[in-house]
Amino acid sequence: MRTHWCGELRPAHAGQRVAVCGWVHRRRDLGGLVFLDLRDREGVVQVVCTPQQPAHAAAQQVRPEYVVRVVGEVVIRPPHTVNPKIATGEVEIRAETLEVLNPSRTPPFEVADGDDVDESVRLRYRYLDLRRERMQRNLRLRHRLAKATRDFLDREGFWEVETPHLIRATPEGARDFLVPSRLHPGKFYVLPQSPQLLKQILMVAGVERYFQLARCFRDEDLRADRQPEFTQIDVEMSFVDRDDVLSLVERLVGYLMREALGVDVPLPFPRLSYRDALLRYGTDKPDLRYGLTIDDVTEVAKAAELRLFREAEAVRCLRIPQAASASRREVEQWVTLAVEAGAPGVLHLALQPDGPKGPLAKHLTDGLLDSMRAATGAREGDLLLFVAAAGDVASAALGKIRQQVGAQRGLAREGTFAYAWVVDFPLLEWDDQEGRYVAVHHPFTAPVDEDVDLLESQPLRVRAKAYDLVLNGVEVAGGSIRIHRRELQERVFRLLGIGPEQAQERFGFLLEAFQYGAPPHGGIAFGFDRLVMVLAGEDTIRDVIAFPKTASAVDLMMGAPSEVDEAQLREVHIAVRKPAAP
RNA sequence: GGGGGCGUGGUGUAGCCAGGUUAACACACCGGCCUGUCACGCCGGAGAUCGCGGGUUCAAAUCCCGUCGCUCCCGCCA
Predict the structure, then answer these.
(1) Is residue A126's beta carbon less than 7 angstroms from any atom in nucleic acid strand B?
(2) Can you give the distance from the CA of residue A96 to the C1' of nucleotide B22 in angstroms?
(3) Which pLDDT does position A580 carry in this prediction?
(4) Distance A407 CA to B5 C1' (A)
(5) Which nucleotide is nearest to A52 (CA to C1')?
(6) The pLDDT of residue A101
(7) Of the candidates A117, A150, A247, A567, which lies 20 to 30 Å from A266 by C-alpha distance?
(8) Separation of CA A118 and C1' B13 in angstroms?
(9) What are the pLDDT digits (tens) for A331-383?
C-alpha cells in the first residue's frame, strides 16, 4: 500500500515514484494549486496537487484527519520554497492520484497544532490525542526504553518471567483490587500490587536472575505520578549484595540514557544516606540538579542571645545565594511554605553589603555572625533562612523552600538528569495509628549486618539494606537485599507484631519455600511510568501512558468503571450493596 | 475523607471582583475568490439556554447555597 513513510523522504529520494499513506495534517487550497501536509507516524511531508493531475479534484474534497493514499513523484523543492521547519522540507510529492481511504468527522480539537486542550477532552478522544506529535514522541520513547531494558538485561543473563495477575491477597501495603471467583463462591483473587513475593520465590526456584516489565495494581487515591495500574521494571538477583544490585542498575540506566536519549550520565551515581538526605535537603528524594543545601547550626545558634535558638531541639539553616535583596513578598511566600510544612516559624537574615538585616540581626554578635558564615559558607549578598524545631521538621520545612527556590530560579533545568542513590534507610518506623512498628520498605528487607544486634534493644536505629534511586527529585526505583534466613525473618516479624500463626497465614507459602534452600538475594523495582515521565520532560505519568485514568480513576474513553449485567453478577456470586443515598 | 484551582459556541480564552448592550476575541467549521503555500491570504456565514439544580433581585455568565466533572495537594500509596 505504501512504499515509504511520509517522514522519511529526503532529497535522496528525488525522482522516485512513491506511495505514501497517512492523515491529512493541514490543507492549503490556493485555488488552482492545493497543498496538503500528509502525516504518518514518522513525520509530515508536503504534497502538491496541480490541476493537470486527478489528485487535484480529490484534494478539494479532503479535510483534516481524512485518511488518504497519495501516489506521486518526489521532487526537490524550488529553493525559495524550502521549509526548514520540517525534516522533509527540502522535498515535496507531486501527486498523481489521491485516494481517500476514509473520511473523518471534524475532530473535537486540532490534531495538527500542539495547543493545550482540556485533559478530559483529550482523554475522551484519546485516539486523537495520541495522534499528536508530543504523545507520539512519548509513546516512542517509552517503547525504546522498554526495548533497551530487555536488550540490556538479556545480555546480563536475566530471564523475563511472567507472574500471575490473579493472586492471593496478602495483607499489609496498599488496598487490593478484588476479582471474584466464579468457581469458588465467596472467594476472591486480588491483582498484584507488585510481583514482590513471586520474584523472591523465583530466586528459591533457581532462576537466579529475573526481570519483568510487570503491571501492578493498587486501589489507592491517584496523583499526578500515581495511577491505579502502572508498570514496574522488576528485577531480582541471587548471590548478590547491595553493591552488586546498585552497580547493575547504574549500568542499566547508563545504557537506557544512551540508547533512548543519546545522553551520557556519569557513573557511578552519588550516594546519600537517608539521614543526610533529610538533613541536607529536607526530603528522602532530593533534586540534585542544583545545590542549595541545608546546614545544621544547632550548636552555633546556642551562642545567640535568643531563647528560641538556645532552647531549640535543632536549628537548621538554608542558604540562598544572592537572595539578600529578595522582596518581602517573596520571603513571606517562602515562610508560608515552611509553616505549612510544620515549621513554627522562619527567621531570615539578609547579608546586605551594609551589614546583616532582618529580625535576627540584632541578636547576633560579630563572633556569632562569623561562626554562622563558617557553618553555612554564607557570603555577602546571601539570604539565610532559619527554622528552630525538631530536626526533621526544620529540615523538611526548609526543604520545601529549597524546592520552590529551585523551581523559581530555573535551577532545575529541563533536559538535565541528576541521579542519586539514597541508602541506609531505617528498617522500621513507628506507626501511631496501628500502635506498632511497621517496615519502611517491606517485611522481608534485611537489616544492615552491624545493626542486627540492635534489633531488640534499639529497633528504630537499625538500618536496612534498602536503596532508592532518585532522579530529579522523583523516586524512580527502590529495592533491597532480602532476608533469606528463617531465624532473622522471625525476629523481624516479632518486631512487626506478626506472630508465628499470623506469619504462616499471610506468607506461609513464602516461608515454606524459604525452608528449601533460599539463596541470598535482592533486587529492585523501577516505577517505569515515572522514569519515562521524567525523561520525556512531562509533569504527569498520564502523558506517558496510552490510556490513563482520571484523578477519580475513571477511563473517559471506555467509560470504565461501569455497571454490569445482573447475570454477570449472579455468576460470580456478587450482590451489590450501594452506599445509602444522602 | 479533607483543602485549593478551574468549568462561557467544536477548541482555547475575555467578560464575573463592582448584576443591566444583540455575551466579545482567536483558532476550528461552512460558502466564495485565489498557481508556491507551509499557522496561506482575502470576503462572507453559521454556531453558546455561560456544567447542572435551586435561591436573592425589577434584572444573574456575574451574588448566595447545593451538586457534578476535570485538576493539584494532604490523608492514603509495606
Answers:
(1) no
(2) 50
(3) 64
(4) 20
(5) B35
(6) 97
(7) A150
(8) 12
(9) 888 888 888 888 888 999 999 988 888 888 888 888 888 888 999 999 999 99
Tell me A130's DSSP state.
T
Going A380 to A382 to A388 to A394, the CA torsion angle's sign is negative
**Residues 186-225/A with CB < 7 A to strand B:** 193-194, 196-197, 218, 220-225
Cell numbers found for residue A110: 486540532
Q: pTM to 2 decimals?
A: 0.95
Write out pLDDT tens, residues A466-483. 999 999 999 999 999 999
pLDDT of residue A338: 87
Q: Chain B positions under 7 Å from a protein CB?
A: 1, 10-13, 27-30, 33-41, 67, 69-78
- Spans in chain A with pLDDT lower than 50: 582
Residue by residue, DSSP assigns A243-301 as HHHHHHHHHHHHHHIIIII-----SSPPEEEHHHHHHHHSSSS--TTS---EEE-HHHH
d(CA A342, CA A329): 20
Protein-to-nucleotide distance from the CA of A93 to the C1' of B5, whole angstroms: 48
The grid coordinates of residue A244 equal 552488586
- State, as a whole number of angstroms, the distance between the CA of A108 and the C1' of B51: 18
Q: How far is the CA of A548 from the C1' of B70 (A)?
A: 14
Cα dihedral A73, A74, A75, A80 sign: positive
Q: Distance (Å, rounded) from C-alpha A253 to C-alpha A153? A: 11
> Burial of A576 by CB count in 10 Å (0-12 exposed, 13-18 middle, 19+ buried)?
exposed
User: What are A577's three cell numbers?
Assistant: 450493596
Q: Is A263's CB less than 7 Å from nucleic acid strand B?
A: no
Residue nearest to nucleotide B27 (CA to C1'): A110
Q: Which of residues 418-447 of A touch strand B (CB under 7 A)?
A: 433, 438-443
B69: residue with closest CA to C1': A120
Domains of chain A: residue spans and CATH: 6-102 (2.40.50.140), 136-271+419-543 (3.30.930.10), 290-401 (3.30.1360.30)
Output the distance from A337 CA to B75 C1' rounded to whole Å: 19
**Positive or negative: CA dihedral A450, A455, A458, A463:** positive
- With b for 16 or more beta-carbon neighbours within 10 A and e for fewer, the A381-409 pattern comes to ebbbbbbbbebbbbbbbbbbbbbebbeee
Could you identify the residue written with the cell 483529550? Answer: A122
A82 Cβ nearer than 7 Å to chain B strand: yes
Question: What pLDDT, on the 0 to 100 scale, is given for residue A582?
Answer: 44
- In terms of DSSP bridges, do strands A347-352 and A419-423 run parallel, antiparallel, or are they unpaired? unpaired
